[in-house]
Amino acid sequence: MGSTGDMKDETLPPLRFIPLSYNHADSQASALRLVLTLNPQWEGPDNKIEFVRFTDGITNTLLKIINRKPGLTEEQIDNEAVLMRAYGNHTEILIDRERETTSHALLASRGLAPPLLARFQNGLLYRFIRGRPATHLDLVKPPLWRGVARRLGQWHAVLPIGGHSASSSSAKELPLSHQVDVDDQHQHKQEDDLDPIKPRVPGPNMWTVLQKWILALPTTTEEQRTRRRALQKELESVVRELDDGRGLGDDGLVFAHCDLLCANVIVLPSQCLATAATSDKEALNVQFIDYEYATPSPAAFDIANHFAEWGGYDCDYSMMPTRSVRRQFLTEYVKSYSQFRGITECAQQEIVDRLYEDVDRFRGIPGLYWGVWALIQAQISQIDFDYASYAETRLGEYYAWRREVDGSRAQAGEEMPLRERRWAEA
Fold first, then answer.
1. Membrane-spanning regions, if any (predicted)?
2. For 246-257, how does the pLDDT look when each residue is reduced to its tens digit (9 = 90+)?
3. Distance CA 389, CA 315 (A)
């Protein structure tokens, strides 16, 4: 389904480092120290610094820092605004922060992310994108999902994923390393006799991220160890079934966002979903933010994961896209992908057909991915969110898909779950 050819890793300029930390217990003062170190010209009586806290994320603290100097318009204030992302406690277990910075810088170099301004000890400072975050109710509206499909097609077409080849197994050669430490692997193997998976392509990708998370699951009780072993068996099964190189990109992998929930889709200014003039055939201009989970991945996983987010944090499965909507989305996506890859129009329909099948095959994997993630968050996070229940809901999606695929649900004479039913609708 196409190849990224000879795309290579890019050497990006070094990013400024500020040797300070954000302190959650002393939020405003520590954030002020950071922004004044970045912008010393903001100090003094002519400046009026304000902090706006965003609460959509369930992993990090995100602050917008603005300077309301007299005489500036809202647009001028926003153009100079700084976003401060401070990492949640212990999230390094889930996220490789060095690689997040690398991917953000790569995206910014292609005009697909706001410019990075600096790193600090537990976070990043970068430019603000004017616009508004989508809601999960927005995701189902044609002008919005057409915009997402076009932007995602561009991402998957133009971004290099690094030297994925048989001879390039070193994590340092790849832009997004989520490799599990060898000593950690050995320790886990002795403790619980888990053999880490060996994906078809060496190096980091969404399969190795999921493997790392399973290895990080708690093993204090026999129940925890039993569940960990069961989830490892599921991972081995899906890698066997789905890691086949069939998809778009280099060896079946593209540079994927892997976390396209509604709050990470920004509708750019001068456009409004409520505008009567916006026809269903038009596409809004959107940008994607938050690149913590960006990594090489099958395109079908990134797309299926986005579709899973149409239900929002509450997992409202009645919002899942039907077969006709998925095909329309993929048609927009492939048009965009083909434009940036130089694929002729006559070849596009075959790509849509094959990608439609691939997305269908991957529809249960986001539940496994985020279910395991939430099991870890339930252990480490101090955020007021019921990760334990969320884990069971997401893992339930995966097992429902598995029972549909192997026919055990039908054999037992059980009713098809809502998510699967909605997915099967015309």
1. none
2. 899 988 999 999
3. 11
Pick from 186, 184, 210: nearest CA to 197: 210
Q: Which two tokens stand for residue 321?
A: 């896209």
**Of 153, 186, 122, which is closest to residue 330 (Cα–Cα)?**
153
Map 98-134 to HEC letters: HHHHHHHHHHHHCCCCCCEEEEECCEEEEECCCCEEC
Q: How far apart are CA 110 and CA 255, in angstroms?
A: 13
Q: Are the beta carbons of 94 and 376 closer than 8 angstroms?
A: yes
Confidence of residue 409 (pLDDT cuts 50, 70, 90): very high
Exposed/middle/buried for 299, CB within 10 Å: 0-12, 13-18, 19+? Answer: buried
CB 365 within 8 A of CB 242: yes
SS3 344: coil
Own/partner pairs for 342-347, CB < 8 Å, 24+ apart?
343/2
Cα–Cα distance for residue pair 409/5, rounded to 1 Å: 42
Rg of the chain over all Cα atoms, to the nearest angstrom? 22
Length of the chain: 426
Q: Please tell me the distance from the alpha carbon of residue 383 to that of residue 380, in angstroms, as a whole number.
A: 9
**80-94, pLDDT tens digit by residue?**
999 999 988 778 888
Q: Is 352 helix (H, G, I), strand (E, B) or coil?
A: helix
